[in-house]
Amino acid sequence: MATVSRSKQSKQPSLAQLRAFAAVAEHLHFRDAAAAIGMSQPALSGAVSALEETLGVQLLERTTRKVLLSPAGERLAARAKTVLDAVGELMEEAEAVRAPFTGVLRLGVIPTVAPYLLPTVLRLVRREYPALDLQVHEEQTSSLLEGLAAGRLDLLLLAVPLGVPGVAELPLFDEDFVLVTPRDHWLAGREDVPREALKALDLLLLDEGHCLRDQALDVCREAGRSDGAAVTTTAAGLSTLVQLVAGGLGVTLLPRTAVRVETGRNEHLATAYFANPAPSRRIALAMRVGAARGEEFEAFAAALREAMRPLPVWLN
Predict the structure, then answer these.
(1) Residues of 234-257 as b/e, b for ≥16 C-beta within 10 angstroms?
(2) Fewer beta carbons under 10 A from the terminal one: N or C of the chain?
(3) What is the pTM of this model?
(4) In 127-182, which ranges are E strands?
(5) According to the model, what pLDDT value does residue 10 have?
(6) What DSSP letter does each residue of 46-103 carry, written as one string?
(7) What is the DSSP-derived secondary structure letter of residue 184?
(8) What phi, psi does 139 have (nearest 5°)?
Protein backbone atom coordinates (compact mmCIF):
# COMPACT_ATOMS: atom_id res chain seq x y z
CA MET A 1 0.00 0.00 0.00
CA ALA A 2 1.28 3.47 -0.81
CA THR A 3 2.98 5.54 1.87
CA VAL A 4 0.47 7.60 3.80
CA SER A 5 0.92 11.34 3.76
CA ARG A 6 1.36 13.37 6.92
CA SER A 7 -2.11 14.92 6.44
CA LYS A 8 -3.73 11.48 6.29
CA GLN A 9 -1.85 10.36 9.39
CA SER A 10 -3.42 13.24 11.30
CA LYS A 11 -6.94 12.03 10.53
CA GLN A 12 -8.83 10.10 13.19
CA PRO A 13 -11.03 7.05 12.52
CA SER A 14 -14.72 7.49 13.25
CA LEU A 15 -16.73 5.28 15.56
CA ALA A 16 -18.85 4.21 12.59
CA GLN A 17 -15.70 3.00 10.81
CA LEU A 18 -14.53 1.11 13.87
CA ARG A 19 -17.96 -0.51 14.33
CA ALA A 20 -17.99 -1.57 10.69
CA PHE A 21 -14.52 -3.09 10.89
CA ALA A 22 -15.25 -4.83 14.22
CA ALA A 23 -18.40 -6.37 12.74
CA VAL A 24 -16.55 -7.66 9.68
CA ALA A 25 -13.75 -8.99 11.90
CA GLU A 26 -16.31 -10.90 13.94
CA HIS A 27 -18.44 -12.30 11.09
CA LEU A 28 -15.87 -12.44 8.25
CA HIS A 29 -18.78 -11.77 5.92
CA PHE A 30 -19.93 -8.37 4.68
CA ARG A 31 -23.63 -9.19 4.46
CA ASP A 32 -23.78 -10.76 7.93
CA ALA A 33 -21.72 -7.93 9.43
CA ALA A 34 -23.95 -5.28 7.86
CA ALA A 35 -27.08 -7.00 9.19
CA ALA A 36 -25.55 -7.28 12.67
CA ILE A 37 -25.04 -3.52 13.03
CA GLY A 38 -27.98 -2.31 10.96
CA MET A 39 -25.92 -0.83 8.13
CA SER A 40 -26.26 -1.33 4.40
CA GLN A 41 -23.61 -3.52 2.82
CA PRO A 42 -22.22 -0.76 0.56
CA ALA A 43 -22.03 1.65 3.50
CA LEU A 44 -20.22 -0.93 5.60
CA SER A 45 -17.73 -1.71 2.83
CA GLY A 46 -17.13 2.00 2.34
CA ALA A 47 -16.58 2.54 6.07
CA VAL A 48 -13.98 -0.23 6.23
CA SER A 49 -12.20 1.11 3.14
CA ALA A 50 -12.18 4.59 4.66
CA LEU A 51 -10.71 3.18 7.86
CA GLU A 52 -7.96 1.43 5.91
CA GLU A 53 -7.16 4.71 4.17
CA THR A 54 -7.14 6.62 7.46
CA LEU A 55 -4.88 4.09 9.19
CA GLY A 56 -2.71 3.49 6.17
CA VAL A 57 -2.86 -0.30 6.47
CA GLN A 58 -4.78 -3.08 4.74
CA LEU A 59 -7.13 -4.65 7.27
CA LEU A 60 -8.88 -7.24 5.11
CA GLU A 61 -8.04 -9.65 2.33
CA ARG A 62 -11.06 -9.76 0.04
CA THR A 63 -11.74 -12.67 -2.32
CA THR A 64 -14.80 -13.59 -4.33
CA ARG A 65 -15.79 -16.21 -1.77
CA LYS A 66 -14.73 -14.98 1.64
CA VAL A 67 -13.17 -12.23 3.72
CA LEU A 68 -10.03 -12.76 5.76
CA LEU A 69 -8.25 -10.53 8.24
CA SER A 70 -4.79 -9.43 7.22
CA PRO A 71 -2.03 -9.73 9.85
CA ALA A 72 -2.54 -6.03 10.62
CA GLY A 73 -6.31 -6.56 10.74
CA GLU A 74 -5.95 -9.33 13.30
CA ARG A 75 -3.92 -7.03 15.57
CA LEU A 76 -6.13 -3.99 15.15
CA ALA A 77 -9.47 -5.86 15.50
CA ALA A 78 -8.79 -6.36 19.21
CA ARG A 79 -7.86 -2.67 19.57
CA ALA A 80 -11.04 -1.60 17.79
CA LYS A 81 -13.15 -3.72 20.12
CA THR A 82 -11.42 -2.21 23.15
CA VAL A 83 -12.17 1.30 21.90
CA LEU A 84 -15.82 0.47 21.19
CA ASP A 85 -16.23 -1.19 24.60
CA ALA A 86 -14.77 1.89 26.28
CA VAL A 87 -17.15 4.17 24.40
CA GLY A 88 -20.06 1.93 25.40
CA GLU A 89 -19.01 2.10 29.05
CA LEU A 90 -18.75 5.89 28.76
CA MET A 91 -22.31 6.13 27.45
CA GLU A 92 -23.56 3.69 30.08
CA GLU A 93 -21.86 5.68 32.85
CA ALA A 94 -23.37 8.93 31.59
CA GLU A 95 -26.83 7.37 31.43
CA ALA A 96 -26.52 5.98 34.94
CA VAL A 97 -25.38 9.35 36.30
CA ARG A 98 -28.27 11.19 34.63
CA ALA A 99 -30.93 9.07 36.29
CA PRO A 100 -30.96 5.51 37.64
CA PHE A 101 -33.60 3.08 36.38
CA THR A 102 -34.00 4.89 33.08
CA GLY A 103 -32.96 3.96 29.57
CA VAL A 104 -32.42 0.41 28.32
CA LEU A 105 -31.76 -2.59 30.56
CA ARG A 106 -30.95 -5.74 28.59
CA LEU A 107 -31.83 -8.67 30.87
CA GLY A 108 -30.80 -12.21 29.98
CA VAL A 109 -32.82 -15.08 31.49
CA ILE A 110 -32.38 -18.86 31.32
CA PRO A 111 -35.31 -20.93 29.97
CA THR A 112 -35.94 -22.74 33.27
CA VAL A 113 -36.50 -19.39 35.00
CA ALA A 114 -38.12 -17.16 32.37
CA PRO A 115 -41.74 -18.47 32.32
CA TYR A 116 -42.00 -18.64 36.10
CA LEU A 117 -40.24 -15.50 37.34
CA LEU A 118 -40.67 -12.99 34.51
CA PRO A 119 -44.27 -12.14 35.50
CA THR A 120 -42.93 -11.00 38.89
CA VAL A 121 -40.04 -9.12 37.28
CA LEU A 122 -42.29 -7.34 34.79
CA ARG A 123 -44.83 -6.33 37.44
CA LEU A 124 -42.03 -4.87 39.55
CA VAL A 125 -40.60 -2.90 36.63
CA ARG A 126 -44.00 -1.53 35.60
CA ARG A 127 -44.83 -0.52 39.16
CA GLU A 128 -41.49 0.81 40.44
CA TYR A 129 -39.44 1.69 37.35
CA PRO A 130 -41.82 2.90 34.61
CA ALA A 131 -39.03 4.81 32.83
CA LEU A 132 -36.91 1.68 32.47
CA ASP A 133 -36.89 0.10 29.00
CA LEU A 134 -36.55 -3.58 29.94
CA GLN A 135 -35.49 -5.83 27.06
CA VAL A 136 -35.60 -9.57 27.80
CA HIS A 137 -33.43 -12.20 26.09
CA GLU A 138 -34.07 -15.90 26.86
CA GLU A 139 -30.95 -17.99 26.24
CA GLN A 140 -28.98 -20.81 27.81
CA THR A 141 -26.35 -19.99 30.43
CA SER A 142 -23.29 -20.19 28.18
CA SER A 143 -24.83 -17.81 25.64
CA LEU A 144 -25.91 -15.39 28.38
CA LEU A 145 -22.41 -15.26 29.85
CA GLU A 146 -20.94 -14.60 26.41
CA GLY A 147 -23.46 -11.79 25.94
CA LEU A 148 -22.62 -10.28 29.32
CA ALA A 149 -18.88 -10.37 28.62
CA ALA A 150 -19.34 -8.84 25.18
CA GLY A 151 -21.61 -6.05 26.46
CA ARG A 152 -24.63 -7.34 24.53
CA LEU A 153 -26.43 -7.93 27.84
CA ASP A 154 -26.38 -5.85 31.04
CA LEU A 155 -27.76 -8.19 33.67
CA LEU A 156 -28.55 -11.91 33.92
CA LEU A 157 -31.19 -13.85 35.86
CA LEU A 158 -30.01 -17.43 36.23
CA ALA A 159 -28.91 -20.27 38.49
CA VAL A 160 -25.63 -19.95 40.39
CA PRO A 161 -22.86 -20.47 41.37
CA LEU A 162 -21.21 -19.62 38.07
CA GLY A 163 -17.58 -19.44 39.11
CA VAL A 164 -16.78 -17.08 36.21
CA PRO A 165 -14.03 -14.46 36.66
CA GLY A 166 -15.27 -10.91 36.19
CA VAL A 167 -18.90 -11.77 36.99
CA ALA A 168 -20.50 -10.70 40.28
CA GLU A 169 -23.50 -12.61 41.64
CA LEU A 170 -26.37 -10.98 43.55
CA PRO A 171 -28.27 -13.88 45.18
CA LEU A 172 -32.06 -13.66 45.19
CA PHE A 173 -33.43 -16.92 46.61
CA ASP A 174 -33.08 -20.68 46.94
CA GLU A 175 -35.79 -23.07 45.81
CA ASP A 176 -36.32 -26.79 46.36
CA PHE A 177 -36.52 -29.38 43.63
CA VAL A 178 -39.79 -31.29 43.44
CA LEU A 179 -40.22 -34.79 42.04
CA VAL A 180 -42.92 -34.96 39.33
CA THR A 181 -44.38 -38.44 38.74
CA PRO A 182 -47.28 -40.10 36.96
CA ARG A 183 -50.44 -40.03 39.08
CA ASP A 184 -50.27 -43.77 39.85
CA HIS A 185 -46.55 -43.80 40.73
CA TRP A 186 -45.58 -45.37 44.05
CA LEU A 187 -43.99 -42.08 45.21
CA ALA A 188 -46.92 -39.86 44.15
CA GLY A 189 -48.07 -37.51 46.91
CA ARG A 190 -45.32 -38.34 49.38
CA GLU A 191 -43.70 -35.53 51.36
CA ASP A 192 -40.72 -37.44 52.77
CA VAL A 193 -39.00 -38.91 49.73
CA PRO A 194 -35.37 -39.79 50.54
CA ARG A 195 -32.83 -38.62 48.00
CA GLU A 196 -31.64 -42.21 47.68
CA ALA A 197 -34.89 -43.03 45.86
CA LEU A 198 -33.43 -41.32 42.79
CA LYS A 199 -31.00 -44.21 42.33
CA ALA A 200 -33.73 -46.54 41.06
CA LEU A 201 -36.03 -44.17 39.14
CA ASP A 202 -36.40 -43.71 35.39
CA LEU A 203 -35.26 -40.10 35.28
CA LEU A 204 -36.13 -37.74 32.42
CA LEU A 205 -33.87 -34.73 31.89
CA LEU A 206 -33.48 -31.65 29.74
CA ASP A 207 -31.15 -31.68 26.74
CA GLU A 208 -27.43 -30.96 27.01
CA GLY A 209 -26.67 -27.27 27.53
CA HIS A 210 -29.38 -26.57 30.13
CA CYS A 211 -27.94 -25.81 33.54
CA LEU A 212 -30.96 -27.50 35.15
CA ARG A 213 -29.84 -30.78 33.59
CA ASP A 214 -26.44 -30.43 35.24
CA GLN A 215 -28.03 -29.51 38.57
CA ALA A 216 -30.34 -32.54 38.41
CA LEU A 217 -27.40 -34.81 37.65
CA ASP A 218 -25.52 -33.32 40.62
CA VAL A 219 -28.50 -34.13 42.85
CA CYS A 220 -28.53 -37.69 41.51
CA ARG A 221 -24.82 -38.14 42.13
CA GLU A 222 -25.25 -36.89 45.71
CA ALA A 223 -28.01 -39.48 46.09
CA GLY A 224 -25.66 -42.25 44.99
CA ARG A 225 -26.85 -42.64 41.42
CA SER A 226 -23.90 -43.58 39.23
CA ASP A 227 -22.81 -41.34 36.37
CA GLY A 228 -23.40 -44.25 34.05
CA ALA A 229 -27.08 -44.69 34.98
CA ALA A 230 -29.05 -44.53 31.76
CA VAL A 231 -31.03 -41.42 30.82
CA THR A 232 -32.79 -42.61 27.69
CA THR A 233 -35.14 -39.69 27.01
CA THR A 234 -34.50 -35.96 27.09
CA ALA A 235 -36.47 -32.83 26.18
CA ALA A 236 -35.79 -29.27 25.10
CA GLY A 237 -38.08 -27.69 27.71
CA LEU A 238 -39.82 -28.36 31.02
CA SER A 239 -43.28 -28.43 29.43
CA THR A 240 -42.24 -31.34 27.22
CA LEU A 241 -40.62 -33.10 30.16
CA VAL A 242 -43.81 -33.12 32.22
CA GLN A 243 -45.82 -34.37 29.23
CA LEU A 244 -43.41 -37.29 28.96
CA VAL A 245 -43.92 -37.95 32.65
CA ALA A 246 -47.70 -37.84 32.20
CA GLY A 247 -47.30 -40.41 29.44
CA GLY A 248 -45.63 -42.81 31.84
CA LEU A 249 -42.06 -42.63 30.51
CA GLY A 250 -40.52 -41.79 33.87
CA VAL A 251 -40.17 -39.05 36.47
CA THR A 252 -38.42 -35.69 36.49
CA LEU A 253 -37.21 -32.93 38.78
CA LEU A 254 -38.75 -29.47 38.60
CA PRO A 255 -37.73 -26.32 40.47
CA ARG A 256 -40.47 -25.39 42.93
CA THR A 257 -41.37 -22.17 41.09
CA ALA A 258 -42.20 -24.18 37.95
CA VAL A 259 -44.48 -26.76 39.55
CA ARG A 260 -47.80 -24.91 39.51
CA VAL A 261 -47.42 -23.72 35.92
CA GLU A 262 -46.26 -27.05 34.52
CA THR A 263 -48.41 -29.53 36.46
CA GLY A 264 -51.49 -27.63 37.61
CA ARG A 265 -53.70 -28.49 34.63
CA ASN A 266 -52.69 -32.10 34.01
CA GLU A 267 -54.67 -34.70 35.92
CA HIS A 268 -52.21 -37.41 34.96
CA LEU A 269 -49.40 -35.87 37.02
CA ALA A 270 -48.55 -35.91 40.70
CA THR A 271 -45.82 -34.36 42.82
CA ALA A 272 -43.66 -35.66 45.64
CA TYR A 273 -41.47 -33.67 48.01
CA PHE A 274 -38.09 -34.64 49.40
CA ALA A 275 -37.31 -35.07 53.06
CA ASN A 276 -35.32 -32.22 54.58
CA PRO A 277 -32.86 -31.03 53.57
CA ALA A 278 -34.37 -31.10 50.11
CA PRO A 279 -32.11 -30.66 47.07
CA SER A 280 -32.28 -27.08 45.83
CA ARG A 281 -30.87 -24.51 43.48
CA ARG A 282 -29.97 -20.83 43.95
CA ILE A 283 -31.22 -18.08 41.63
CA ALA A 284 -29.34 -14.78 41.35
CA LEU A 285 -28.74 -11.75 39.23
CA ALA A 286 -25.30 -11.57 37.63
CA MET A 287 -23.47 -8.50 36.37
CA ARG A 288 -20.00 -7.56 35.21
CA VAL A 289 -17.61 -6.73 38.05
CA GLY A 290 -17.26 -2.97 38.17
CA ALA A 291 -20.32 -2.34 36.02
CA ALA A 292 -21.14 1.36 35.74
CA ARG A 293 -24.69 0.63 36.90
CA GLY A 294 -23.59 -1.66 39.72
CA GLU A 295 -25.35 0.26 42.51
CA GLU A 296 -28.51 0.40 40.42
CA PHE A 297 -28.38 -3.37 39.83
CA GLU A 298 -27.87 -4.04 43.55
CA ALA A 299 -30.94 -1.93 44.34
CA PHE A 300 -32.86 -3.81 41.66
CA ALA A 301 -31.83 -7.12 43.24
CA ALA A 302 -33.05 -5.97 46.66
CA ALA A 303 -36.41 -4.90 45.22
CA LEU A 304 -36.71 -8.16 43.31
CA ARG A 305 -36.09 -10.22 46.46
CA GLU A 306 -39.02 -8.52 48.14
CA ALA A 307 -41.23 -8.91 45.09
CA MET A 308 -40.55 -12.65 45.09
CA ARG A 309 -41.49 -13.12 48.72
CA PRO A 310 -44.94 -14.63 47.84
CA LEU A 311 -43.27 -17.36 45.75
CA PRO A 312 -42.45 -20.81 47.19
CA VAL A 313 -38.80 -19.91 47.72
CA TRP A 314 -36.26 -19.18 50.44
CA LEU A 315 -35.06 -15.59 50.29
CA ASN A 316 -31.32 -14.82 50.60
Answers:
(1) ebeebeebbbbbbeeebbbbbbbb
(2) N
(3) 0.69
(4) 132-138, 155-160, 167-182
(5) 62
(6) HHHHHHHHHHTS--EEE-SS-EEE-HHHHHHHHHHHHHHHHHHHHHHHHHHHH-TT-E
(7) T
(8) -150, 165
Q: Which amino acid is at 151?
A: G
Output the pLDDT for position 215. Answer: 77
Helix (H, G, I), strand (E, B) or coil at 285: strand
With a CB cutoff of 8 Å and minimum separation 6, the contacts of 56 are 1, 3, 4, 8, 9
In whole angstroms, give the CA distance from residue 76 to residue 82: 10
> Counting every residue, how long is the chain?
316
DSSP string, 228-275: TS----EESSHHHHHHHHHTTS-BEEEEHHHHHHHHTT-TTEEEE-BP
Tell me the β-bridge partners of 62: 67
Q: Please give the pLDDT value at position 206.
A: 79
Taking the C-alpha atoms of residue 207 and residue 210, their distance in angstroms, rounded to an integer, is 6
Q: In whole angstroms, give the CA distance from residue 307 to residue 176.
A: 19
Burial per residue of 161-200, b for 16 or more beta-carbon CB atoms within 10 angstroms, e otherwise: ebeeeebbbbebbbbbbbbbbbeebebbebeebebebbee
